[in-house]
């Protein structure tokens, strides 16, 4: 039996290890079984769309933790280029990759609108009036039927050029691409605030989307993130949601 090798990466939800020539993503114990099957199901759906995502090889229990065995991503991380390269080139490269996902139908993936609604309903820190307003705003926005990654940022992109691989598909869903771009804006707004709006503008430039149409999703997207246990972002998220 193959032994679990060195760690390749670590995040809030999971750790990734070498496993022979493959990668083993082990979720942390709280919800590891459900999360493993959820991400594997998402990746199985994406496999038929020929997107730059890892192929699933197995789901199972490894040393008492549930995980997904999948193709190993290239060792280089796009975030290194994104951080170190000035100008619009890395923003445009990332936007073009995001556009590739959004060209594909999201049939079979969970509904983005349903997920956002459920998270807004249980988000802490919202008063009743803000919660009602945010749900109404969400209902007024146009639904979609495209692949949305749900956590698209430079640290989830590996490789370069034609060899890109996008990882971490746990929150993949079917919905409006502009909502997915707005989610990226919220993530970058916290991690790299000087690049967040530049990314929105780059995506708008390569797709013909309207910047205003992307930012219209900001209040519900920010409010939904309140459920993700990122306490150091909560004040900022409440402000972006218009609830502070």
UniProtKB/TrEMBL annotation:
<keyword id="KW-0808">Transferase</keyword>
<dbReference type="InterPro" id="IPR002575">
    <property type="entry name" value="Aminoglycoside_PTrfase"/>
</dbReference>
<protein>
    <submittedName>
        <fullName>Aminoglycoside phosphotransferase family protein</fullName>
        <ecNumber>2.7.1.-</ecNumber>
    </submittedName>
</protein>
<dbReference type="Pfam" id="PF01636">
    <property type="entry name" value="APH"/>
</dbReference>
<feature type="domain" description="Aminoglycoside phosphotransferase">
    <location>
        <begin position="18"/>
        <end position="203"/>
    </location>
</feature>
<dbReference type="InterPro" id="IPR011009">
    <property type="entry name" value="Kinase-like_dom_sf"/>
</dbReference>
<dbReference type="GO" id="GO:0016740">
    <property type="term" value="F:transferase activity"/>
</dbReference>
